[in-house]
Amino acid sequence: MSITLVQDNYSPVTEGDTLIPFSPQFGQYVNGILQAYDLTGLTITMKMQNANDTSVSKSGTGTWTIDNATAGQAHYTWDSADVDTPGIWTLFIKLTNSGTGAFVHSFMKTLEIEAAP
Predict the structure, then answer these.
(1) Which of 50, 93, 101 is nearest to 75 (CA)?
(2) Which domains does the chain have, with CATH numbers?
(3) pLDDT category, 78, cuts 50, 70, 90?
(4) Rounded to an integer, what distance in angstroms lies between the CA atom of residue 7 and that of residue 66?
């Protein structure tokens, strides 16, 4: 079984733009067929690292909301601190068990933050 993030048109964003959330759908391949990954009982967190200067990182201070757990649907509402620095950022998204804190799975995505005009 392979867990994946179904593509979301989330990048690029403009510096300071918090209006459009990052809305991935979590999926898993079962026998080569993509199916929803059930998020029931899971917590989603995110850290960000500057792809050009890996000494620069920050915790995602926005809010993850699970919209439909059994359908694997969630969204992340950007905080202004998340999108305050233009550049290429690597998003490290982690799923953990809400009850035990045990690691379940992690994902990496790239986000481009463009300078505001």
Answers:
(1) 93
(2) 2-114 (2.60.40.10)
(3) very high
(4) 17
Alpha-carbon span 77 to 90, nearest angstrom: 17
Residues 6+ apart with CB under 8 A from 68: none
**5, 28 Cβ separation under 8 angstroms:** no
The first and second tokens of residue 107, run together, are 């994902």
| Total residue count of the chain as it appears in this document | 117
Q: Which two tokens stand for residue 76?
A: 């992340």
Residues forming a β-bridge with 90: 49, 110
> Tell me, what's the pLDDT at 103?
95
Q: Of 2, 14, 39, which is closest to residue 24 (Cα–Cα)?
A: 39
